[in-house]
Write a structure and sequence with these properties.
The structure is a homodimer. Chain A is α/β, with parallel strands linked by helices. Helix content of chain A is 45%, strand content 16%. In chain A, strands 2-1-3-4-5-11 form a six-stranded parallel sheet, with helices on both faces. In chain A, strands 7-6-8-9-10-12 form a six-stranded mixed sheet, sandwiched between helices. At the A-B interface, helix 4, helix 5, strand 2, helix 6 and helix 11 of A face helix 4, helix 5, strand 2, helix 6 and helix 11 of B. The first copy, chain A, binds a DNA duplex through helix 2 and helix 4. Chains A, B: InterPro entries: Cro/C1-type_HTH, HTH_LacI, LacI/GalR-like_sensor, Lambda_DNA-bd_dom_sf, Peripla_BP_I.
DNA sequence: TTGAAAGCGCTAACAT
DNA sequence: ATGTTAGCGCTTTCAA
């Protein structure tokens, strides 16, 4: 194979008989250029099959037009849709997107934070479930978080979790459920998602019922989760309504319920949470609270861009949720 | 707020009372250094909170340690799992991963190819469904494709589609199905996936049955797809077995079947394809052919790294599939 | 064991 | 309308 030397501005300049600067100007459409020069330069570029070295440009500009998405894993309906929506919007704005699956591993999350601090990326969207990463508190670089409290100065985009909780529980109450159980992840995760539980408890208390919540970690296997749900059915055979904190769990609960001869919705009603694309395609029967994923993506991108552009005083936002009526409740 | 000047090698060198070279050596653990010097330099780095500029290093090395994943969308169980597995492996090897959702848009795919040619990424994993992008034929830069023929010199990692097709159809035949229909996407997509259809046709012909295939584009809405399936049930009310080309379609077919009062598996059997994580969690009842997604990821990463390291003669591989027995067939 | 100097490929003052 | 030059921050020969 022929050893190919990389073609640079200089080579184009030489062939076109102009200076590097002129070539750079043609490349960036900047400054005054005569048509003749422009043509000469373009011809030379074509002839040499010139390709600008973006890294060099990045070094000069101190900007990479790269952002990283730090979520537990993209292999989950909610995050998959969210990341796809984020990528779509960033792409339109000329940003490339790094996939940062943190696996809920603080070390990996810190790696991505380092990328930001090292100026390898211009910004970060984080939605991981780790906590206590102190660097978040210190940095003033652009970070937007989704459904998670990260640090005082970091804006959060979330959906209206309290309202979502109310909608879900009210639906079960309206369905006539007497014994409603909630599943959530361990509450120490410092997420606005706790508000769902708050709403559940408030509404239960208001109706003089005892709130019962089962904790299920996000990052364990389906089998592990099913084990918790079996325990739940054994400990509370009277349960007739479940408000699950996400659709995957709702789906697992329905399956485990079958083992206990519970038929949904006749003798068990289930309301899920998230309402992502994939879930609705694969489990259309699920009644659920839908988070406005596309709008959340739009907002997060908007806020991050403001931060990247140096704007201060960027505020958190909360977006409304929607009830999706189907047949499990 | 205080205007912070970025700390560079020079600053560290000055504070430590050594040269840039020495600091660089400490940073990279290269060459002979006295312990005293090393300590001095580290102290200075700590004091200044020095962070190396990776872009500058990339410019020098002409290597970004970045790869891009070009697939139609990550918002799909198969691609989500595949991309997550790829990211996990690349991360362990020190590569970062760009998410390239091509939306089956050739222009977007070309953009990512450009990233590669511009040396902004070191390699590409492609699994999009576009075709006729001539640049693929010309480049000698590192590209590995998954389940898709891209160009003569580009290695393909695929699962054994022919075997998968045989397994699926044989299962339906064993179940006693007399009128089996196959769904696939338009055949011009130059994918090894055509082999599934080939297997279907071969087996049908062998059993003296007429093969019937319905084409469903990958990148249309669920509603659009359901429309095709309704047409299928109307045109072929005798159908009693379906070999769907992916699990999402299988799921949609089962739903549409209900509209036609078809009860699965009693009077309609369905075998899907892919067997991704999410699908199995959300639609565990689906009998399907499972692609070895983690192994495909492992192999693709391995091949791409060989290419990045300059190895030639990197060969395509085919990996075995597996039948997942459940209740829809 | 350490340093000086050149250069990775590009951009932007500043000059003409 | 175009060119000269300095420099973005780092690594690496080469020399000492």
């Amino acid at each position: 194979m022929v050893e190919k030397k990389t073609i640079k501005l200089d080579d184009v300049a030489e062939l076109a008989g102009v200076s590097k600067t002129t070539v750079s100007r043609v490349l960036n459409n900047r400054g005054y250029l005569s048509d003749k020069t422009i043509k000469k330069v373009h011809d030379a570029m074509d002839k040499l099959n010139y390709r600008p070295n973006v890294i060099a440009r990045q070094l000069f500009k101190q900007k990479t037009n790269l952002v990283a998405l730090v979520f537990p894993t993209v292999d989950n309906p909610f995050f998959a849709e969210l990341e796809a929506e984020l990528e779509k919007r960033f792409d339109q704005l000329g940003y490339r997107v790094l996939m940062g699956n943190s696996q809920n591993n603080p070390a990996k999350e810190q790696d991505y934070l380092k990328l930001l601090l090292n100026h390898q990326v211009d910004g970060l969207i984080v939605g991981s479930h780790n906590q206590g990463i102190s660097e978040y508190q210190k940095t003033t670089r652009p970070i937007v978080s989704i459904e998670r409290f990260v640090g005082k100065q970091i804006p959060v985009v979330s959906s209206d979790n309290y309202q979502g909780g109310l909608l879900a529980v009210q639906r079960l109450l309206n369905d006539g459920c007497k014994h409603i159980i909630h599943t959530n992840y361990p509450i120490n995760l410092v997420s606005p998602n706790e508000l769902r539980q708050q709403a559940y408890e408030d509404l239960m208390n208001k109706h003089h019922r005892k709130p019962i919540t089962y904790s299920v970690s996000f990052d364990v296997s389906d089998e592990e989760k099913e084990r918790v749900f079996r325990k739940m059915f054994r400990e509370h055979p009277e349960v007739d309504g479940i408000f699950a904190d996400n659709d995957t769990n709702a789906s697992l609960i329905i399956r485990v319920g079958k083992e206990f001869n519970r038929h949904v919705p006749d003798d068990l009603k289930v309301v899920g949470y998230d309402g992502a694309n994939i879930t609705r395609t694969l489990s259309p029967e699920l009644t659920t609270i839908q988070q406005p994923i596309p709008e959340m993506a739009t907002k997060a991108v908007e806020l991050l861009l403001q931060l990247i552009e140096g704007k201060t005083n960027v505020k958190s936002v909360t977006l409304p949720v929607k009830m999706i009526n189907s047949t499990t409740a």
